[in-house]
Structure formats: C-alpha cells, structure tokens
Design goal:
single chain; alpha/beta; Rossmann fold; seven-stranded parallel beta sheet; five-stranded parallel beta sheet
Length: about 325
C-alpha cells in the first residue's frame, strides 16, 4: 500500500515510520510550499491514501479523477477543519475523509485565541511596533492611546463548540467575564457552569467587549459576520478570528478598523486584504493558532492512525462524514 504526503509536516520521520510499521510506504513531497494542483491529481491516481493539509484543494474534479483509477481510498487531512475538501463528492464516491480533532489541538487554538485577545486589549502589538521604530522609549504622555482592561467585561463567542467553549471558560474563570454566545443551540451544561447565555448574533455583536469567532466554515456560515454585523460593534471592541477567514466580511472589518472605530483586531486567518490595514493595534498570526509541539505530535499520530485503520480495517478513526 502507498500513500503521498503533500509537503513535509511537523514530524515527518515519525509519520513515515508509523506507516512503514503498518506496511504502508509513504512518499513525501520535499517542498514546504502548498502542493501544485497537477501534482495532487497525478498522485491521487497512484496511491491508496492522500495525506493533506488544510491549504490543499481536494475538489470534485480531483476526487472523480482519482475514483476512476480505483486506487484512492482515503484523504487524511492534517487539521481540525476540512473545508478544503469536497465532502459531498467524497461521500458519493465512497472515498473516506478524516481530520485531526485532537483535544490538544482544541486546547492550543483556544489558548491562541485568548492570547490574541489579551495582547490586543493591552495594545501589545502596537506598543511593540512603536518601540521597534525608535532608538529609545517614547516619552510618557497621558494623551497616548490606552489599553483596555480584560477583567469584568463581556466576551461574545461566535460558535460555542470545542474551541469556543474552552475560550469561554478561560475568559469567565480567568478574567471574570460575562459570556454570551451565538450557536445553533444552547449548551445547558456550560451555561450552568459559567452562567453563559445564548443570544442572537446581532445582540452579541452590539453588546460584547471582546468578540471571538470560533465557528466552522460551511455553506450556512460563510460571511456570517457580514458588514451589517460588523457595523454593530462598539468603538472599544476587540475582534478575534481564529476559525476561517470566510466567516467574516474581511473588507468591512478592515474598513471599520482603519476608520479608528475599533480598539483592535487579532486574526489567525485572513486574505491579502489585510495588507491595507493602516492601524497599528493588529496581530496577524498566519494560521498558526494550533501550531505547538504537543498539539502537532498528537495530530501526527492521528493522521497516521486514520490512514492505517482505514486501509487495514476500512474503519476511519475520525471520519468527517
């Protein structure tokens, strides 16, 4: 049995050895850039398993072409998300799709969300860039922009899933924040624990000091936080997105930030539109929210075990459909 890894991952030798021990030969593309589409198609015709990253586009055309060859049995995605894969087509063609929803990955992303929130609230990115541009500390002045407190505020969570709930608990227990959230249903156990409250999205946007987007991207949530929602935020609000860029009207958010009517923004996911941001209280972390050693070791194990279990037993460990 053969597998193809689209580019080196966190612990490629470990991944390669785990598969080899199971009798699966892994070919690794020795290039850190996103795999070209033509190579993805070519390899999908030659292997039993594709090991992908969330930037690899596994679309209908690729899956249908691969199915015609009769080889490809599983696409094992390295990441919690799987919006890069045409799930409906994969299901129709009986090609398994897996992801890596490890507890460590959820914890890592939640920690990164809170870290971005606190750093923006305390204006750390802006203060850092200011000092880097000088040869000595700036003169003290009470006319300078101030930080905002994190304690005793209202945090609004857009998507109270496994990441959002961890953010909510941290903000409530750690900073005594009131938690409101938008989701398809309320979370009774969490509500009892931290006194959180399910609200409509427009209410959340208008009444939150900190807004954290932690919702999956799909056809129902695309552009959920649209221009009308962004206009509802108050002028001291801090906005954080560690989920997917497509959930948010990015240009509307940037326009609002550049107008000087937001406290700041922290984004782990975004497009090239962020190059037009003029305000200084901004943090961009390049889709590295869950990129830590503990999380990625666990994700590496799960990618390998998904491939092994699917090819050997036809039973994916974490199927996405």
């Amino acid at each position: 049995m053969n597998a193809f890894l689209t580019r080196p991952t966190f612990n490629t030798p470990k991944l390669q050895q785990m598969l080899a021990d199971a009798g699966i030969e892994l070919e690794v593309r020795d290039n850190p850039d996103v795999c070209p589409k033509n190579l993805l198609i070519e390899k999908s015709l030659q292997v039993d398993a594709l090991l992908t990253h969330t930037e690899d586009a596994i679309d209908r055309g690729l899956l249908e072409t691969a199915k015609n060859s009769g080889r490809l049995k599983v696409v094992s995605n390295m990441g919690i998300g799987f919006s890069n894969i045409d799930i409906e087509t994969a299901k129709k063609l009986n090609i398994a799709v897996t992801n890596t929803p490890t507890e460590e990955a959820f914890e890592a992303t939640a920690e990164a969300t809170v870290a971005l929130l606190v750093s923006i609230a305390r204006r750390i990115p802006a203060l850092h860039m200011e000092r880097k541009s000088l040869t000595e500390d700036p003169a003290p002045s009470f006319s300078r922009p101030t930080a905002v407190s994190v304690r005793n505020k209202v945090t609004g969570i857009v998507g109270m899933g496994r990441i959002g709930s961890r953010v909510a608990k941290t903000m409530h227990h750690g900073f005594n924040n009131q938690i409101i959230y938008y989701d398809i249903a309320n979370k009774p156990e969490l509500d009892r624990d931290i006194h959180s409250q399910l609200v409509k999205l427009d209410y959340l946007m208008a009444h939150s000091d900190f807004i954290c987007v932690n919702m999956p991207l799909n056809k129902h949530t695309k552009n959920l936080v649209n221009a009308d929602m962004i206009a509802l935020m108050h002028n001291k609000a801090t906005f954080i997105n560690t989920a997917r860029a497509g959930l948010v009207d990015e240009q509307a958010l940037i326009d609002r930030l550049n107008s000087g009517s937001l406290h700041g923004v922290g984004l782990d996911v975004y497009s090239s539109a962020v190059n037009t941001i003029a305000e200084s209280n901004i943090a961009l972390t390049s889709h590295f929210a869950n990129f830590e050693d503990q999380a990625y070791n666990a994700m590496t194990d799960l990618v390998a075990n998904n491939v092994i279990s699917t090819l050997k037993n036809n039973t994916p460990i974490t199927p996405v459909y």
